[in-house]
Amino acid sequence: MAVVAIYSLKGGVGKTTLAVNLAWCAAALSARRTLVWDLDPQAASTWLLGGEEQARDQAQAVFTRDVEVERLIRPTPYERIDLIGADASLRSLDRVFHELDKKKRLAKLVGSLDKAYDRLILDCPPGLTETSEQVMRAADLIVVPVPPSPLSTRAFEEVVRHLDGKRGHAALMPVHAMVDRRRKLHADALAAQPDWPAIPMASMVETMAARRAPVGSFAPRNPATRAFADLWQAVERRLK
């Protein structure tokens, strides 16, 4: 099983959009047995994948071993995609990790799922926190959405500096997110980093929330669907 974390220091950059659509690509296009693990207390991925009806306030309990992680796995409406949903209990997850003082607790839980799935997608909360440190040890690849803005670029550079010289962390894969090529600032950002994959700002992506579904499941020929598919292929190449 390969572990792909969708992470950014900054909020509001499209992490959940990437997590849900990459999971759909993994399952539908690559026939991978895929698990989405929502670590963000906002539970956006959980909501989009129809997991809000699961037991409440148990998401944190797997880290203290009060609940076995397998008990929280639920199917989704999509073939080969399962979900470990988030809930409000994750608001204190950083404190739990700090008190446990076990640097690889998430990695060990991830390892227990190794034979059941081919790909694990982690939808991560923003910030440089105890949770993000756990994610960086557990992941094989960290996909970082970077919208074309100075603040988002600064946030990505801060993550690069944070990881510089550290051992045992996953590789970073930056992605241009929410791109509008008509805007000069966006065009300049793409020109400055032409090797980064790019996901467009598109009305069809915004429709995800109304339909509560990955773009590819209802608009298979849309350019946004093609962009997510291309990004997934780039992720697969990096994992190899």
TrEMBL record:
UniProt domain AAA: residue ranges: 1-162
InterPro entries named in the record: AAA_dom, DNA_Partitioning_ATPase, P-loop_NTPase
Pfam family, one: AAA_31
Name assigned to this protein: Cellulose biosynthesis protein BcsQ
Origin organism lineage: Bacteria, Pseudomonadati, Pseudomonadota, Alphaproteobacteria, Sphingomonadales
